[in-house]
Write a structure and sequence with these properties.
Distance between the termini: 81 Å
Strand content: 5-15%
Number of strands: 6
Strand order of the largest sheet: 1-3-2
Oligomer: single chain
Helix content: 40-55%
Number of helices: 14
Radius of gyration: 27 Å
Length: 343
């Protein structure tokens, strides 16, 4: 008599473990909520790298959905941050977990493909539905649709989201720096001598550099791997960081300095940023043409080669000066919080 046993296994997709590891290094905690039993869920979590065999699994890290569901709202709020794997869960359990994490101050992203996932996708800060297997209800309740149904695409979402946020900060730093310099020059000159050194046409050119060319140059920087090594930005953290306030001290040639607000090497990746190089070259050419040939229109005076060299040297000084300034440590407390009243 022969007996035959079959073992079925649904392995993780390729690159999932690597994607989970990248998210964890980036400070994104990956949690798994599944309808499978607790033992299957634990095995899958170990295979994907969500759980690690070398670490001590703390209480409530692995939990069944019905246990979580039976807790009171306050109890769910206390243990939600500890949960890594939830097995035998229902759509309601997933919704409760998202709700508890958001109330605890977390920024929550949820993936889902079924109609029952719609409440959790809608409740999350960012809902990510599947483009291939996802239902229309799930897609309608989500913010982002993952076209290839691959978890690795979540890493791209995080990378590009951080890149957009960082580019906005770069542009704001550049705007504040140039505005402060222009206002200070005009204010000091007007109050001391009664003459305004920057005419309307010159201010228009400065604003063109800032609002149009500066935005295109700084807001189109591509994502870098360094972005995935930064900690996540909290929900209530200020857009203008202490590093940006420190860098605003450096005024001249600041568009280059603004490319890397927290890095000393401001030229890293410059070759791949073709738009930035093109805009800076265009700005330089127009600046020379305005100074040399638009005297009556822009109220400028042509410069000889000696004065052009002086201008270049003065501008160049800001680069090593910026590198020195970036070595100055900044406190963790946001700068503006020092001026807020204590409750």
């Amino acid at each position: 008599m022969w007996s035959l046993a079959y073992t079925l296994m649904d392995p993780c997709r390729p690159n999932v473990r690597e994607a989970v590891n990248i998210c964890q290094v980036a400070g994104v905690k990956v949690r798994m909520v599944t309808g499978d039993n607790i033992y299957t869920a634990k095995a899958i979590a170990l295979e994907c790298g969500i759980l690690h065999t070398t670490e001590t699994i703390e209480q409530h890290a692995i939990i069944e959905g019905r246990d979580f569901r039976n807790y009171s709202e306050d109890e769910r709020l206390k243990i939600a941050d500890k949960i890594v794997v939830m097995g035998r869960s229902s759509p309601t359990d997933k919704f409760y977990l998202v709700q508890a994490l958001r109330k605890g101050g977390h920024v929550v992203a949820v993936t889902g493909d079924g109609t029952n996932d719609a409440p959790a996708l809608h409740e999350a800060d960012i809902g990510l539905s599947m483009g291939i297997q996802g239902t229309e209800v799930a897609k309608g309740s989500s913010d982002i649709i993952i076209l290839d149904d691959n978890f690795s695409s979540v890493v791209k979402v995080v990378r590009w989201g951080r890149s957009v946020y960082a580019n906005i900060q770069k542009f704001i730093q550049f705007q504040l720096t140039v505005n402060i310099a222009a206002l200070a020059i005009n204010f000091v000159a007007a109050t001391s001598s009664g003459d305004v050194p920057l005419t309307a046409v010159q201010l228009l050119w400065v604003n063109l550099i800032m609002d149009t060319l500066g935005a295109l140059a700084l807001a189109t920087e591509t994502p870098t791997d360094r972005l995935m090594k930064r900690p996540p930005v909290g929900r209530r953290e200020p857009l203008i960081t202490n590093i940006m306030w420190r860098n605003i001290m450096v005024q001249i040639f600041n568009e280059f300095n603004s490319r890397k607000p927290d890095e000393i090497n401001i030229f890293q990746g410059l070759r791949s940023s073709h738009l930035f190089v093109g805009i800076m070259s265009f700005t330089l050419v127009i600046q020379v043409l305005i100074v040399e040939f638009a005297g009556k229109f822009a109220s400028t005076t042509p410069l000889n080669w000696e004065k052009w060299i002086y201008c270049i040297v003065i501008g160049f000084i800001s680069w090593p000066l910026a590198a020195i300034v970036k070595l100055i440590p900044v406190p963790a407390t946001p700068f503006l919080d020092y001026f807020s009243l204590n409750n």
